């Protein structure tokens, strides 16, 4: 479709961004044949691209302009002044097309926090049906189940007929998948339960977004767009960069969106929107588009040369990301890791041919080994944990009295004390890393040290540090300024340090212990890039190790937060932008607080629920007007 053909139709709904959430919204709205839906996507259509389809080739997509926006942060004081590269999918399907395929679940309290902060209807029970709606759970074969111990899954809690395929890979298993659950149990972790129960404490192999029949990535373009692309009332235009929303404001009335301006090959076009404009650009692009359109802080807009249409200072604020601290450790030669593929082009080519022709081999198997650990498991020696946490929160509040108008820190600090809640997500990856290359994500896992390596990664679950994303120009092609503010809050670094110490203690337990290549003194061998010469002996040493080895987990949220306006909100509980009559935001940028684990499942669930809100199936945040939960 040409841009001229696209603009011939005045759509009822114009969706900005054909990514993870945008294609869900477009597919659901276009189920009604009486409405028209137009989608504008800055990237290209990469359906049937083997680099996207292969579950374990995602590293080949990063830093390539045909797949990745390749954003970079400002230098981060909390991580030794490093710049961090941010992979964000610039392709139909968005970041669901370039992620790790790991499939986690928010905890009950994670989502109940949202309602407690003032978002009526946004709670765990209200969102649970939408998890099931998008999901198609595929049970493992008996052989695979016995290898990876997936018995914690409760099929009764899982969706069975949704568009997103969820499974464990049956084509190939790796040694770490087989030893990880037993290592976790030997370390004293409880037998895990299905995270759909609302808690995920324990170590296990987690599900992936992979179709077990085709062995292809299951993502929003494949699941929501491809089956519906021939609908006469759905139009998708790719390679179209949105420059701003066309807003009409008369007097004191709310601003009304009448259309969208977008650029194709250097030429600006305009498309009309009869009912609504729905922004699904993601955590970076959604606040950028609002600010380019004149919605935001007057000071920021003025500095960028944009006229103010709606004064909404919270746009672009509340940026919150999962930090990931990765420590690389040497394993024995008989335990294969990704270094085998990186260093031997012939073997890599054989693996690619195995995937293309037989849907087998290492490229079929996305990462699965992870765990979620409560504070009492993480550091049982911590004396008076509640007092310790409260003191760090109070210390930060004294220095930044206006940093948390919504009271989120109090909720999150309270959550740390709950034994059913995780303070850390552990991930074991069979590849080494050089964190010093974190400004270029595709180079992080490329390192020259001989031997085979694994990463023991400790990832935050709900950081208290918050940053911002703001435009610095009225030019839509100029990237905004990204400042995640890693480790700005002392509690984040404190928990990261304790997590690193705990992760390294896991090396003492079998069967993981037997896989490690120990030195002559029987000690773990650290990758030289970590800066570690041995196990940290004090919390301060662990903090330095964490600061030197931390990167993003690629889970930013919050820049268009769903909160009451007076608490720093950008959208209400119907996802509508304050000060507008018909502009909504639907993507991870509306998450008011962070949640544990990989967030793609929550993005799908939120987009499904938001679609019902837009269609009038949910009133006042609940199912119908009687306030009953779904």
Automatic annotation (TrEMBL):
PROSITE patterns, per the entry: GMC_OXRED_1
GO-annotated molecular function: flavin adenine dinucleotide binding; oxidoreductase activity, acting on CH-OH group of donors
Domain of life, source organism: Eukaryota
Keyword line: FAD, Flavoprotein
Gene3D superfamilies the UniProt entry points to: FAD/NAD(P)-binding domain, Glucose Oxidase, domain 3
One matching Pfam family: GMC_oxred_C
Signal peptide: none
PANTHER family attached to this UniProt entry: GLUCOSE-METHANOL-CHOLINE GMC OXIDOREDUCTASE, GLUCOSE-METHANOL-CHOLINE OXIDOREDUCTASE N-TERMINAL DOMAIN-CONTAINING PROTEIN-RELATED
Name used for this protein in its record: Alcohol oxidase
